[in-house]
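Here comes an entry:

___
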Amino acid sequence: MIERKVIEVSLGAPERDFDVSVSVLGERVRIRRVGTAGNLSLARALVKQYDGKVSCISLGGVNYYYRLGERKYPVPGAAALACAERTPVVDGSGVKKYIEPEIIGRMQSSGEIDLRGRRVLFVSVLDRYDSALRMRALGADVWAGDPLFAMGIPLMLPLSAFTALASVTMPLLSRIPLRFLYPHGDQTTAGNATGIRGFSYIVGDIHLLRRRMPSRLDGVTVISASLRPSDETLIQSRNGQAIPLNRLEGMSLAANVLEAVLVAILGRVPRGEDYFALLEHLPFGYHTQQHIDKNAGPV
């Protein structure tokens, strides 16, 4: 069996690097993570190094865009990392837009979570806007923690208020360099934030959460991708519960890595409907009844 290869070039800490081989949809995929501790120049060099040598390259710790509804705001420095000429480079935006909201809906249907009337804090609405909308549609009282977790401003806002504020401020705030917003290297050390109370669920990027994680998580369920055993242990040590957004052969994959794996298997970047079809065949326990067309063209 031919083993496809995926490389994650991450702006995160090298301490979280891994090199594993998994079986997905009958294919073997080798996944390797290389952390650069926020070094954009090194990340760009790695993308060029692996161009043409792997099936897909994923970017960790950075999105191409911040999303607010249909509006997109380019992330400073991100476009420079899409420098491969032969290999697709993905950031996980397709998984966040299509697969993760669907998984959340099925968690609700299965009874694994109960969002009705519960307060939910998103670590970053700009990172997972579609999941925030899905949770609100399922009856949750959704709040945005972007000012707190990204910038250290002790402010959390209801989703509607945050959307109104962000629509005015994002043209300016989106120009802030990524190093001031996203934790890299030793910035991922677990914090002991206070003042985060009254939420049943905290949802989003585990790295952003770790930096300003509440000192107590009594009665709180953390829903996140890329959960490592050390993350789950930390959450449990603060009396919280952890639920991964996906788990593949015992691993919880970051959205960008999962998207790269899907690209490697399909041989192309998935279209919107492809993600729902793929979810039927992924061993996550949440199923649809759709067919994957590997021969369909790109978006």
Summary: The chain has two domains: 3-92+250-281, 96-244.
